[in-house]
What does this fold into?
Amino acid sequence: MRIRNEITIPNLLTSMRIVVVPFIFTEVLKERMHVAFYIFFIGGITDLLDGFIARRFNMVTKTGAFLDPTADKIFMVPTIVVLSLKGFIPSWACFILVGKDLFIALSIGILYLIKRNVPINPTFAGKSAMFLEGTYLLFVMVDAFVNGSGPTKILKTSFLYISILSAILAVLSYIPIGMSIVRGLEFEKKI
It folds into this structure.
């Protein structure tokens, strides 16, 4: 019965982000960047809409709170990797951008194993990094289908470095949160 309350429009929108990943992957492999762009853009819109609808219409759920950041990583990481494999993103940038998501996901996983209830909410830096990385990926795709001409190349390069900086800041923003949870656990053991 409880699961029925978890099937909401925001959670369905979040799930759509996961569903489109193989299509983005396939279109990038085929180098049909205009199609990959539109699919990725629609996926990005679902990321904006799900949270807005959940908060605005009181549809926030525990499933959504877990699913949304998970869907973000499932949506972004394969897209970054395939764009890098095809040479549209430098491998060093792929390493940093994917490394950020892996670091955060593994850290949360470890904290969860230590303490079942880990109340980690996305930080402003984390949300900003996700938005900026998504914008960067859109410019990468546009630049690929207009053959690197005009302002798209400048925007793509600018957003590359902005995304890298935001990824580093996002990781740094989560470290104090993780440390305070660990310190809290040490305090609980002493009591």
Remarks:
- The domain at 2-190 is CATH 1.20.120 (Four Helix Bundle (Hemerythrin (Met), subunit A)).
- The chain has one domain: 2-190.
- The first helix runs from residue 2 to 6.
